[in-house]
Specification:
- The complex is a heterodimer of chains A (333) and B (281).
- With 333 residues, chain A is α/β, with parallel strands linked by helices.
- Chain A has 2 domains: 222 residues, Rossmann fold, CATH 3.40.50; 67 residues, Alpha-Beta Plaits, CATH 3.30.70.100.
- Helices cover 38% and strands 27% of the residues of chain A.
- In chain A, the strands form 3 sheets. In chain A, strands 6-7-8-3-9-10 form a 6-stranded mixed β-sheet, sandwiched between helices. A 4-stranded antiparallel β-sheet of chain A has the order 2-1-4-5, with helices on one face. In chain A, strands 12-13-11-14 form a 4-stranded antiparallel β-sheet.
- In chain A, helix 3 packs across helix 4 and helix 3 packs parallel to helix 5.
- Chain B has one domain.
- Chain B has 11 helices and no strands.
- Classes of the chains: A alpha/beta (333), B mainly alpha (281).
Chain lengths: 333, 281
């Protein structure tokens, strides 16, 4: 098998003949990585994931998942992937365990094997004590964990997570992150996730793609993207009254220096190395640095750089709005 | 967890799992289960006992044999027996109607998308809805027959357990046809209101334009053709023949089975073809 677990070529989805949701998207997801799909609401994240998990048919282009064509071999694709949808899809009238068994039955997993796997998964998502309780009594975080367990029942090689922490509190979100990391580390699973939480992408993803208006605007590791933005920001003040901009500029890796309110705002690559060398250069010239701070750009800046700052009032289908509203309501329980 | 799943989905397992999921909502919820049994009792009391047509005919007219009159018109001298069978058809109609609604629910809750992302066959997803509604209806039919018997339903002279098997056979065909039809109506719908309106529009007329409560041969000329194409009429006729008529008209019975059978096969096929087309948008 090639290294690419997911590969798309010109993947396109047009709704109602004019609404272009995904526009000629090309990307590859490599074996064993966590790949994040970032973008504002309505950018085409969920549409892309739905095409990859074969519940939406692309208008044009093609894609393969584990070497299987999502259009021609859709049923084969479905049996090797796991899906954790954005909504809470577990049946509320059934217990957690019954829901897992229901999923297992969809894959034709024998009950004996399903039982073993269910125990293991319930332990992983810490729901063992609640397995015989009806899902309607579960909190939002528990539901999300149950979805995760259901998505893993067929031991997928690649797991698709659509907004895995939407509407969750900080504790549950952090717990979810640790499950995701374990899946990658202990099981060597490839994960494809969408999110609009930037810190989530930064904390989890090996590589991210930023998508906007149905097009991928940039792909790379979070570090790469941040670095491409122009590096870290060093803020520095000196005791003396002189303008030392030129001296700072002579230091290695410094890209830009601005004097603002008596302090110097320096854009530089490799801030941790550059900052000491700036101090050294200034000391040699007889200046004393009185204060210094180093800030790394967050993915926030990267994101805003590529998607702009304007607010999005995207058109959403009635169905999606309903589903999302219902998900949020249940998340708060 | 690294090895790929070596199990292949089986149609039957998937079908039963999804069907059982629907049924659990019913038999594991005591109140809903209880109501679904109480409902036919109420109908039978109101329509079968309270609206007793034979009471309209005065008994003191010399030379008038009420039983004979009833028998000519209804095929049986006992209106309650006639009506009880109509109730079976009616319950089947109402129960299957809701199979369509549950597709809309599953779509709204995201459950449908979830199932669609598993390798289970698309046709199975739809057919599980059909099957669960059918099993529920058949169970209710059994209850109705029992209650009706307790209330005084008179079985036909040649009644045997084999007849009962025939009753469930024709009900199976009727319910498969009806629920496939209702699912075909709702399969693309994302909102509750549309299918609700459609079902409200067709359910009662469909019941009254059949022989459920009144023999179709006594209906006005303009209504008779409607009753004549209504599969409910054929199913009712078959159940009456098997359950309460003394003499079975086998050609008519075969005709009933053929008609309802063809109806079921055609509508179920349409439902499955639609599910292939529309479940994946």
């Amino acid at each position: 098998m090639s290294d690419d677990v997911i590969k798309t070529e010109g993947l396109t989805k047009i709704f109602n003949k004019h609404l272009v949701a995904v526009d000629h998207v090309n990307f590859e997801v490599k074996n064993g990585e966590i790949f994040g799909f970032l973008g504002p609401n309505g950018a085409g994240k969920t549409t892309t994931i739905n095409m990859l998990i074969t519940i939406l048919r692309p208008t044009a282009g093609k894609a393969t998942v584990l070497g299987r064509d999502i259009i021609k071999e859709d049923s084969e694709v479905r049996s090797v992937i796991g899906v954790v949808p954005q909504e809470y899809t577990a049946d509320e009238d059934l217990t957690g365990l019954e829901n897992i068994f229901l999923c297992a039955d969809m894959y034709g997993i024998p009950r004996k094997v399903a039982k073993e796997r269910a125990e293991e998964l319930l332990k992983l998502v810490e729901l063992t004590d609640f397995k015989n309780k009806k899902v309607q009594t579960y909190s939002g975080g528990m539901r999300r964990r149950l979805e995760l367990a259901c998505g893993l029942i067929n031991r997928p090689k690649v797991l698709f997570l659509d907004e895995p922490t939407l509407g969750l509190d900080v504790q549950t979100r952090t717990a979810t992150w640790s499950y995701i990391r374990r899946l990658k580390k202990e099981y060597g699973m490839t994960l494809f996730m969408t999110t609009h939480y930037l810190e989530e992408a930064d904390a989890l993803c090996d590589r991210v793609a930023i998508i906007d208006h149905g097009k991928i605007v940039v792909v790379g590791s979070p570090e790469e993207l941040k670095r491409n933005l122009g590096g870290d920001v060093i803020t520095l003040g000196i005791k003396e009254d002189a303008d030392v901009s030129d001296i700072i500029r002579s230091a290695k890796h410094v890209k830009d220096v601005k004097k603002e309110n008596g302090a110097y705002r320096i854009k530089a690559e490799f801030g941790e190395i550059t900052a000491p060398s700036i101090i050294e250069v200034l000391r040699q010239k007889g200046y004393t640095v009185t204060r210094l701070s180093l800030t790394e750009p967050t993915l926030n800046e990267v994101y805003l750089e590529y998607t702009g700052k304007s607010l999005r009032d995207s058109e959403e289908s009635r169905e999606n709005v309903m589903i999302q509203r219902m998900t949020m309501r249940r998340a708060r329980q | 967890m690294t090895e790929a799943s070596s199990y292949s989905p089986s149609m039957l397992r998937g079908l039963w799992a999804l069907t059982n999921r629907e049924l659990k909502k019913w038999y594991k919820a005591p109140l809903i289960f209880f109501l679904s049994i109480i409902q036919p009792i109420i109908w039978m009391g109101l329509l079968g006992k309270a609206m007793n047509l034979s009471a309209l005919i005065p008994t003191n007219i010399p030379g008038l044999d009420v039983d004979a009159v009833m028998k000519t018109s209804l095929g049986t001298s006992d209106y309650f027996s006639f009506m009880a069978v109509g109730m079976i058809g009616m319950t089947a109609l109402f129960t299957t109607m809701f199979s369509g609604m549950s597709v809309v629910w599953d779509r709204r809750l995201g459950f449908l998308n979830k199932v669609l992302s598993t390798p289970v066959s698309r046709g199975v997803i739809i057919f599980s809805k059909v099957l669960s509604a059918t099993l529920r209806s058949m169970f209710q039919a059994g209850i109705i027959i029992l209650i009706a018997f307790a209330f005084g339903l008179k079985f036909g002279a040649g009644f045997s357990l084999l007849n009962l098997l025939g009753v469930f056979g024709i009900l199976f065909l009727l319910c498969v046809g009806l629920s496939s039809a209702f699912i075909a109506i709702t399969i693309r719908s994302t909102r509750m209101e549309t299918p609700m309106a459609v079902m409200n529009l067709i359910s009662l007329p469909m019941m009254f334009a059949s022989n459920a409560m009144f023999p179709s041969k006594l209906m006005p000329d303009w209504l008779q053709p409607v009753a004549h194409v209504n599969p409910l009429s054929y199913a009712n006729d078959a159940v009456r023949q098997l359950l309460i008529f003394d003499a079975i008209d086998y050609t008519q019975l075969a005709m009933d089975f053929a008609y309802v059978g063809v109806f079921a096969v055609i509508v179920a096929s349409i439902g499955i073809v639609l599910s292939w087309r529309f479940l994946r948008k």
